[in-house]
Amino acid sequence: xxxxxxxxxxxxxxxxxxxxxxxxxxxxxxxxxxxxxxxxxxxxxxxxxxxxxxxxxxxxxxxxxxxxxxxxxxxxxxxxxxxxxxxxxxxxxxxxxxxxxxxxxxxxxxxxxxxxxxxxxxxxxxxxxxxxxxxxxxxxxxxxxxxxxxxxxxxxxxxxxxxxxxxxxxxxxxxxxxxxxxxxxxxxxxxxxxxxxxxxxxxxxxxxxxxxxxxxxxxx
Length: 220
Prior knowledge:
This protein is α/β, with parallel strands linked by helices and 220 residues long. It is 13% helix and 30% strand.
């Protein structure tokens, strides 16, 4: 049984631990956080270590890692730690719920999470460090780029391209053959019928472009 260190000690990390302990063959052995967030030496009964010491305490030759962060900074915080973990030599694990519907030949990168009720149709491709929320549908021939976060009940139609560093809010709908440009934020319930502009922010109901770049949302 492969041992895994979870980066993070917040709600997202705790949910990831629950999923992995109840729906995988991975063993969670510790948590790691940046030193400035270190508060004690344990979290929920497991060791808690500073990230700058994690490779000594839990060597990457014997442990994998999951970077369990949410979409803060339009996924930039998670992407930064993803790169740092790989630089330390860790293999980053991907979790696909046994309650998700997928097909043979699914292409999916590392440090990604596909949650319960998600449907990934044939010939779809999922990048690295991607989160696919519950009941989200990725239709045939669509591509989700690296470092994206799709919330629950998102509908991505066929032959859609979602470029890296996008956030798609709950219940959003994306028409077939549309490209969501890099760094976009698509609000909950928005309906996207045409290609978007890079770092655009789109709100429901008709995915009108909000007059601000997603750079303004980096602190969210």
